[in-house]
Amino acid sequence: MGDALFILFDFLNLGLVIFLWWFTLKNYKSLPQVIPTHFDVEGKADNFGNKKWYFFTPILSVVFYIGILFLIRSPESANYPVEITDANRDVQFFIMNFFIRWLFVLVVLIFLNSQDFTFRYALDDEAKARVPFSTILLSIIGSLIAVFIVSAQFK
Fold first, then answer.
1. What pLDDT score does 83 carry?
2. Are 112 and 18 in contact (CB under 8 A)?
3. What SS3 class is residue 38?
4. DSSP string, 42-89
5. Half-sphere exposure of 142 (CA within 13 A, CB side)
6. How many Cα atoms occupy the beta-carbon half-sphere of 7 within 13 Å?
7. pLDDT in tens, 56-89
8. Predicted TM-score (pTM) of this structure
9. DSSP string computed for 90-125
10. With bands split at pLDDT 50, 70 and 90, how would you rate the model's confidence at 91?
11. CB 99 within 8 A of CB 71
């Protein structure tokens, strides 16, 4: 069961990275030469740069993807909220593998939201993000809380 779940996550994660690249390449030519590269908490651009910066997020997603591939191949190198023993090793490694893959899904969805917002804002400075920053932040914090609770249950 765990292997099938992880394979599904791996295909989903790779698919999201490919979709992010497709979205970026599809919209790159439509961008003006200067695009927003940073937004304040109210969603207004406060820094601008060359449109080549539009590739930063997809490149970063590939770097993160490669990083998680290395991390899930050696789960003993991860930092755990509980002590790893012979009795809990398999469960804790499963939780870590699941959580890392889930976290990557959230990160790439954040990147997709950011790319979409950057593209729309570059064309219309009244555009709003499709997913508010507060929702993104709460989803990550909620996931962290959940993984700590589940990890503690399987000490």
1. 79
2. no
3. strand
4. TS-EEEEEEGGGGGHHHHHHHHHHHHHHHHHH-GGGS--SS---TTTH
5. 8
6. 4
7. 999 999 999 999 888 888 877 777 777 778 888 8
8. 0.86
9. HHHHHHHHHHHHHHHHHHHHHHHHHHHHHHHHHH-T
10. confident
11. no
Encoded amino acid at 148, one letter: F
C-alpha 39/C-alpha 21 separation (Å) is 21
Q: Quick one: DSSP state of residue 126?
A: T
Q: Tokens 């790319």 map to which residue? A: 115
Give dist(CA 75, CA 63) in Å, integer: 18
Residue 146 identity (one-letter amino acid): A
Pick from 70, 69, 62, 74: nearest CA to 107: 62
Q: Give the CA dihedral 82, 76, 106, 26, nearest 10 degrees.
A: 170
The tokens describing 48, both together, are 């601008």
